[in-house]
Amino acid sequence: MRELNSKKLARNIESRIGGDISAGRVGGALVSVVQHNKIIYEGSFGSFTPGDNDELPMNTIFRIASMTKPVTAAAVLIEASCGRLSLGDLVSDYLDGYRDLKIGKITDGKVTITGRQQTPIRIYHLLTHTSGIGSGDIGDLRWVMNDEQKSSMEGSVSFYSTAPLGFDPYTAQAYAATAAFDAAAAIIEKTSDMPFDEYLKKELFEPLGMTDTTFSPNEDQFKRLIDLHDLKDGESVRVPILPGYVFADYPTSYTAAGAGLASTLDDYKRFAAMLLHGGQGIIKPEYVEMMSSPQVPQLIMPGSQRWGLGVRVICDSSYRRLPAGFFGWSGAYGTHFWVDPADDLYAVYMKNSLYDGGSGAITAANFEEDVERGF
Question: How far is Cα 249 from Cα 339, in angstroms, rounded to an integer?
Answer without folding.
Answer: 31
